[in-house]
Amino acid sequence: MKALTELVLASHNAGKLKELQAMLGDAVRVRSVAEFSSHEPEETGLSFVENAILKARHAARVSGLPALADDSGLAVDALGGAPGIRSARYADGLGDAANNAKLLAALQDVPDAERGAQFVCALALVQHADDPLPIICEGLWHGRILHEPRGEGGFGYDPLFWVPERECASAELASTEKNQLSHRARAMALLKQRLALA
């Protein structure tokens, strides 16, 4: 694979763009697919990996650049892995607060010992839209779901995700610390090794 100096991120999420740019450092310029298209492909895959590949191919097609897609979400043990690939749309697209409220309601009577969960990240990198050899890297971040939100940082389910190794919610971590511990950080560390950026 030729050296990457620029790629397009298959996301309209400014928080995700900022996080991934910080993880990749200055060697690679990360641009948002929003610069090239407002259309988002339908996520028809049945797994994080399938959806990441779909999004990466779309971003490469509309931008003409190598594309990186991140499909990530929260898998809660007591809910059979839900919200899973529907994490961002768990509450029918009503946003983070609604997603968090729905999750808390679903776990209302579940004791602490059974509230295990993991953030999951699947990264897919394609050199072009029809790349037959996408690079796939996955990361898991294990924790459990709190009974109420804590912290002001992060986004998504961060206020409900207890990080055992730091004894706080993900939303209470400094962004630099989260960028070292998270599911996305773990997947990105593997990707950087594959790209010889580590």
UniProtKB/TrEMBL annotation:
The active site is at residue 71. InterPro entries: dITP/XTP_pyrophosphatase, RdgB/HAM1. It comes from the Bacteria. Binds 1 Mg(2+) ion per subunit. The keyword Metal-binding applies. It catalyses: ITP + H2O = IMP + diphosphate + H(+); dITP + H2O = dIMP + diphosphate + H(+); XTP + H2O = XMP + diphosphate + H(+). It holds the Pfam family Ham1p_like. Keywords: Hydrolase, Magnesium, Metal-binding, Nucleotide metabolism, Nucleotide-binding. Its EC number is 3.6.1.66. Homodimer. This is dITP/XTP pyrophosphatase. It comes from Geopseudomonas aromaticivorans.
